[in-house]
Amino acid sequence: MRATRKDSTSSAANSGELDLIRHIRARAGQPSGAALRLGIGDDCALLRPRRGEELAVTTDLSIAGRHFRLDWHPPQSVGHRALARGLSDLAAMGARPIAAFLSLGLPRELTISAGGRPAWVDSFLDGLLQLAATHKTPLAGGDLSESPTALADIVLIGAVPRGKALLRSTARPGHSLYVTGTLGGAAADLARLAELQPRRIAKKLEADLAPHLYPQPRIVQGLWLVRHGAASAAIDISDGLSTDLAHLCQESDVAAEVDAALLPIHPAATLAQALNGGEDYELLFTAPANARSPRKIAGVPITRIGRIVPLRQNRPAITLLTLEGSQPLNPQGWQHFS
Fold first, then answer.
1. CA 300 to chain centre
2. Res. 13: pLDDT tops 60
3. What pTM did the predictor assign?
4. Where are the domains of the chain?
5. pLDDT single digits (tens) 42-67
6. In a 3-state reduction of DSSP, which class is residue 122?
7. How far apart are CA 261 and CA 303, in angstroms?
8. Which CATH superfamily groups domain 176-328?
């Protein structure tokens, strides 16, 4: 993690920024694990994956007012969610995390403690580093800059056995369609969070809103699927089932049927939230029809929700099967610029 060069109108030195970099480095700790040889302190980190592995790289941007709100989301949640987004991408590829790189743009007031309370950035790091420790993902570097808007850009590096990564483009007609966990919980929580505003949520409510505030990336489940050759294609549900399944179908040049009666809907969610609500960060994957998928992987339920079918002209790419009959399931999840 390095300081960003100042423009000509800025001071030549900024001890606050340098102190914050030192503070983040101290909190991140020393590099651990054979894959990360050199972490924060030099111009680049050094990575060495195991023999027979290839690297998986993903990046996710979180911006105040778009992905989180400073007056709604506890800073611990913002840090957790920033890292969870990238970890979920690795999970969808079946990759094990090697290192994280964090670039932060922050208004100055978010770096200052006041009234005996820690600075916003410290609580942000609490959330991020706790999740990083859970998945043995060291913070290996990044960037830091003062910014009028709070933003966090996370880059995740993972490793997967060569030629074994789970892809979006390898689903085939006849394959079954599965999801991990439950769907719609994050969208239901966000709706409830909006109802609680403008007052800040009480600490005791954070656990009730965990699907939205503290989503759990399915790293262990993704690794299991690769290790057992149990999935033919995969994607994570970040933008909503309807949208992410459309991505998978488009990349694989197939269509899909989803049985509404089979969907594992979160107890607080509606069918619409389960279909279109984003940020569940569950895995959506396919497997040959004759494959035996477990009911749970590391305690997380696995549910068959439909099947992959051939793509045909004049038929919807995704069909929702209900008691009232079949209907097109159009992508209605999250899309930027739409």
1. 17
2. no
3. 0.89
4. 15-161, 176-328
5. 778 888 889 999 999 999 999 998 89
6. helix
7. 11
8. PurM-like C-terminal domain (3.90.650.10)
